[in-house]
Amino acid sequence: MLNFVARRLLAMLPVLLAVSLLTFLIASLLPGDLALVILGDQATPENVAALRRDMGLDQPLWWRYLSWLGHVVQGDLGRSFRTGQTVLQAVAERIPVSLQLMLMAEFIGLLIGVPVAIACAARAGGAFDRFMTGSAFAMLSMPSFLTAILLIYLFAVELRWLPATGYVPFTEAPLANLRFFVLPALTLALAEWPGIMRVLRSDMIATLQEDYIALAKAKGLKPSRILLVHALKPSSLTLVTVTGINIGRLLGGTLIVETIFALPGIGRLLVGAIYTRDLVILQGVVLLVACGFVIVNFIVDMLYAVLDPRIRHGHA
Amino acid sequence: MTAPLLAIEDVAVELPTPRGNLRAVDHVDLSLQAGRTLGIVGESGCGKTMLSRAVLQLLPKKAKLTGRVMFDGEDLVRLEPESLRRLRGRDLAVVFQDPMTSLNPVLTIGTQLMETIQEHLELDAPAAKARSIELLAAVGIPAPEQRLAQYPHQCSGGMRQRIAIAIALSCEPKLLIADEPTTALDVTIQAQILDLLAREQRRRHMAMIIITHDLGVVAGRADEVAVMYAGRVVERAPTQALFKRMHMPYTEALLAAIPKLDTAPHTPLPAISGRPPDPTRPLKGCSFAPRCSYAGGRCQEAKPVLTSAEVSGHLYACFHPIRMTEGIEA
């Protein structure tokens, strides 16, 4: 098992390196001179050239990449030339918001998706299955801004149960904080559960055809045990993958939902950086988000091994 | 004679297919006394596995089952799901063909053994564990205590089939159905597994149905043999009587298809020519007639019914039974 973890960790290194190269290239190859952006339209060519020299922009691309990477591995991702904040400060300020949103959205998504998938697979082709498969399809094709507006209309405007926009940190007012997060998390969850439900349902239906399920029935086990112990675990590998991808994606913030519900998360930070051409922030945030994605996928790999002993023992 | 433990009465199974209804089992009657062994023999697709699934009530959802399966005084076909569940695994157990697929790959062997025991017997976890160790030892698994924590993929095929047998035996069933228990195993393991089944059967005084395509498997192991072809029982007899004198040409052909050690090299096996009839298009006459060298005009026109031979308990369905002069030793 330790060997397995070590191998997976080692395999992450080239991925992270490739990620850093790509993020660097994206930011560097964007049209527009960074020095010109900083100095504005009124700058003289001499000033621009001087700043370029100061920032190392006159160096070749590979040299700039290596020196940036050198700083990055020491934990220095750079500093915004607009706000003076370092990338790490800016991200640290906003990550709790995106993290909380992601956790709540995934939790609600799984809470809806998993039981529905199990119930559908247990009676595949039945009335409940057909209804839920249809509903999932409808939900899947609904854009999140529409869901958000409908939810705001229903719960904030009509019923007045929940606030439409705003944010307070959990540490200041836990209950108010949760109330602010319910609608945005629900908006995301409503887009998440159909995917969760569909992969788990189809995997469960396939698993329920297996010989070992027939044997579990022949052993006289309770139907609930057959579904939850014998069928769910071997069916959940794709579910774990999908959840991992969802988490990785939501970790990077959600531009639309954070904007609609006025949540100061990573998504809003990114949008701001793009609008103000704050390339240092953009580059740093994209790198951190990509690293987060890689780490989540590493955790997913570990979960595979927990779920399937054959992977743990290197048989599959 | 006491009431049989299992009585299959006029059981028919139909499966809907895109090409029409497939009659997998065609009005079969069989019975089995407690503690006895019945061998069901036939080639692939003859309905023997479907028949066993009908007894276990594990048919595919769309299958249509008619007839009665009387087990220990109750009709399994009409039993409530909950009563059926309590019966399965306790009084009625099964060993499937392929031990590579019949054990759950993500649960430990201990879990798969103990869950059956704890479902049906009033035992706490330590007692169930002790019983599991006993069972594994009984089926010839070395170091049974360590095996409990292992997963199926850590065991060989023969080992897994022994574990599957241990699971089947765990609640002292009255009837064990072994559905081609050795087909997926190495030849060297086959005899070991069959001997294990026979030994445990005698020890526990349980009835057993062995389903196989190999007449050699039931010879000397089953008390009675039923030969199935195209969903029907075409010959049924006490094993000794059957091997002494076969009446049905199909049974003879099945026996001839077993390779023998004393034939010269490169001798072609006398395989049964042709294929079984399309089960969605039943024939008017005898199902075996198109492949039978004895068949006459009558065989195309009418289905022969099971008729008694001279030996009591020997039934066959044939208009032109074989006149054999010499018997084959069982």
Strand order of the largest sheet of chain B: 6-7-8-3-9-10-12-11
Round the mean pLDDT of chain B to the nearest integer and report it. Answer: 88
Counted by DSSP, the helix tally of chain A is 15
Range of helix content of chain A: over 70%
CATH superfamily of the largest domain in chain A: MetI-like
CATH fourth-tier homologous superfamily of one domain in chain B: P-loop containing nucleotide triphosphate hydrolases
Mean pLDDT of chain A: 88
Stretches of chain A where pLDDT is under 50 for at least 5 consecutive residues are none
Radius of gyration of chain A: 24 Å
Gyration radius over CA of chain B:
21 Å
Structure classification of chain A: mainly alpha
Termini separation of chain A (Å)? Answer: 14 Å
What is the correct CATH architecture of one domain in chain B?
A: 3-Layer(aba) Sandwich
How many separate structural domains of chain A? 2
Question: Main β-sheet of chain A: number of strands, strand sense, barrel status?
Answer: none
Helix and strand string of chain B, N-terminal first? Answer: EEEHEEHEHHHHHEHEHEEHHHEE
DSSP strand count of chain A: 0
CATH architecture classification of the largest domain in chain A: Orthogonal Bundle
CATH class of the largest domain in chain A: Mainly Alpha
Helix content of chain B: 25-40%
Main location (chain A): membrane
Membrane topology (chain A): Multi-pass membrane protein
GO cellular component, one term (chain A): plasma membrane
Protein name (chain A): Peptide ABC transporter
